[in-house]
């Protein structure tokens, strides 16, 4: 009876440490928040699989080295596959990115665990009590594995490793290469042991695990940082293009001002003649027409420039300016309202730019199909939150119920394209909420970001 309790308890603790290490590290690499229900579910499934696997092993007749190596490949792959499915179901990230994260996680966790176990077994003094010795080596090694994995997860989060990791998937070729490397690293220890079997483990032979994990992570970090640097250069080029669009808008306004000055001079000449003749009604009509003429020619442009000028975040200001220029070129009437200076993002700047880009692109796509294309943009910063709202006209009434689901990506009337990506970004920030509504034949999508 004591033997079964000992085996069950040890297996439960080891499985919990291993599965929890796998889950937490994978979630941090994907830059998501820990889902407790999902974590408990994975730990439970992992333990059940380990129990069944150990029962099958105890009933087996051939337990040579080759059999154990193949067995481990199948077993570890099963654990990773279940983790991938669970992560996809919980966080709905891209499949290839999730697979790579889970494979890398297995490589790191397995490396730490195997190194700790090999060193403890090789150098821990033998004890008379076999149960106590087995408990010390297995429990201690898995405790070290769990603690190290949690520390690595925290370190990766602070270093914002997810930005570099995401940069590895910006093109199909890089994504495929990253996936292949991750899958190879996943079983590299088992493959090495199969090709170069060792009868005795020493500190020197065990240290290759440390060197391997350091070199592999250094390579991935270097590759990711290199790609991220290229992305930053591209982002800076985009900002320059957006600033050029802003300057073009200013130049257009300047040209309009010159034209208006010429027209205004001619109009003033006519009013002077009316004043000499005492035509008071004619002067009143002139003033009224001049005001309407000014609003038609310059009023909207000045209002937009004033609104955009209150955005004190240069990349966001450049993005909105370039999008407004695209809308005007497409013949869409634009209205922008920024009542107070916008100084804080409330989220990572890159995520805010992605959200605004998605909303404005969707609005332009839908508005162009409508009879009277119109887009309204509102940015309102208070002490506690930043409200961003984009409203657009539409050709067909959007289905708000369908658009509330992540699977909705249909292009056409209303929004749709990119909304799933937008929701993934929003989920990263607690307290950040979105809303949709229809009013005055306009579709409105708003985001409230706590500051």
Compact overview of the structure:
The protein is α+β, with helices and mostly antiparallel strands and 451 residues long.
| Strand portion | 5-15%
Q: Which structural class best describes the helix and strand composition?
A: alpha+beta
Largest sheet: spatial strand order? 1-2-3-5-4
Number of domains: 2
| Unreliable runs | 412-417
Number of helices: 14
* pLDDT averaged residue by residue: 78
Report the order of strands and helices.
HHHHHHHHHHHEHEEHHEE
Biggest sheet character? 5 strands, mixed
- Rg over C-alpha atoms, rounded to the nearest angstrom: 31 Å
Shape: elongated
What is the helix content?
over 70%
Distance between the termini: 58 Å
Task: Tell me the total number of β-strands.
Answer: 5
Report on the architecture of this protein.
The chain is α+β, with helices and mostly antiparallel strands and 451 residues long. It has two domains: 2-201, no CATH class; 310-451, Histidine kinase-like ATPase, C-terminal domain (Heat Shock Protein 90), CATH 3.30.565.10. Helix content is 71%, strand content 8%. The protein has 14 helices and five strands. It has a five-stranded mixed sheet with strand order 1-2-3-5-4. A hairpin with a 2-residue loop joins strand 4 (433-439) and strand 5. Helix 1 packs across helix 4 (95-123). The model is unreliable at 412-417 (pLDDT under 50).
């Amino acid at each position: 009876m004591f033997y079964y309790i000992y085996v069950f308890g040890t297996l439960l603790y080891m499985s919990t440490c291993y599965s929890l290490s796998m889950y937490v590290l994978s979630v941090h690499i994907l830059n998501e928040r820990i889902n407790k229900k999902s974590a408990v579910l994975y730990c439970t499934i992992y333990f059940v699989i380990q129990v069944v696997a150990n029962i099958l092993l105890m009933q087996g007749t051939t337990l040579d080295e080759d059999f154990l190596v193949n067995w481990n490949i199948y077993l570890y792959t099963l654990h990773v596959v279940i983790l991938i499915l669970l992560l996809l179901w919980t966080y709905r990230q891209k499949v290839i990115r999730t697979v790579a994260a889970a494979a890398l996680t297995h490589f790191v966790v397995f490396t730490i665990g195997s190194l700790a176990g090999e060193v403890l077994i090789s150098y821990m003094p033998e004890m008379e009590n076999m149960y106590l010795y087995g408990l010390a080596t297995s429990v201690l090694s898995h405790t070290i594995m769990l603690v190290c994995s949690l520390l690595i997860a925290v370190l990766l989060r602070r270093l914002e490793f997810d930005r570099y990791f995401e940069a590895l998937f910006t093109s199909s070729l890089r994504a495929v290469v990253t996936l292949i490397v991750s899958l190879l690293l996943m079983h590299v220890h088992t493959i090495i042991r199969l090709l170069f079997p060792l009868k005795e483990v020493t500190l020197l032979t065990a240290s290759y695990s440390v060197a391997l994990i350091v070199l592999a992570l250094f390579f991935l970090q270097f590759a990711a940082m290199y790609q991220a640097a290229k992305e930053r250069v591209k982002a800076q080029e985009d900002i320059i293009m957006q600033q050029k669009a802003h300057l073009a808008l200013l130049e257009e306004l300047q040209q309009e001002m010159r034209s208006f000055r010429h027209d205004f001079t001619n109009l003033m000449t006519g009013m002077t003649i009316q004043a000499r003749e005492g035509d008071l009604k004619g002067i009143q009509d002139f003033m009224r027409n001049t005001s309407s003429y000014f609003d038609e020619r310059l009023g909207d442009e000045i209002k937009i420039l004033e609104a955009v000028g209150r955005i004190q975040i240069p990349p966001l200001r450049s993005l909105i300016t370039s999008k407004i220029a695209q809308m005007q070129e497409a013949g869409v009437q634009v209205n922008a309202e920024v009542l107070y200076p916008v100084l804080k993002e409330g989220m990572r700047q890159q995520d805010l730019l992605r959200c605004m880009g998605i909303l404005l692109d969707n609005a332009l796509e839908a508005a162009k199909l409508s009879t009277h294309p119109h887009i309204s943009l509102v940015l309102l910063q208070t002490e506690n939150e930043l409200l961003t709202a984009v409203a657009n006209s539409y050709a067909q009434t959007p289905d708000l119920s369908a658009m509330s689901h992540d699977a909705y990506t249909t292009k056409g009337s209303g929004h749709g394209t990119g909304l799933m990506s937008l929701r993934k970004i929003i989920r990263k920030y607690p307290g950040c909420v979105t809303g949709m509504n229809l009013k005055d034949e306009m579709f409105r999508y708003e985001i409230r970001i706590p500051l």
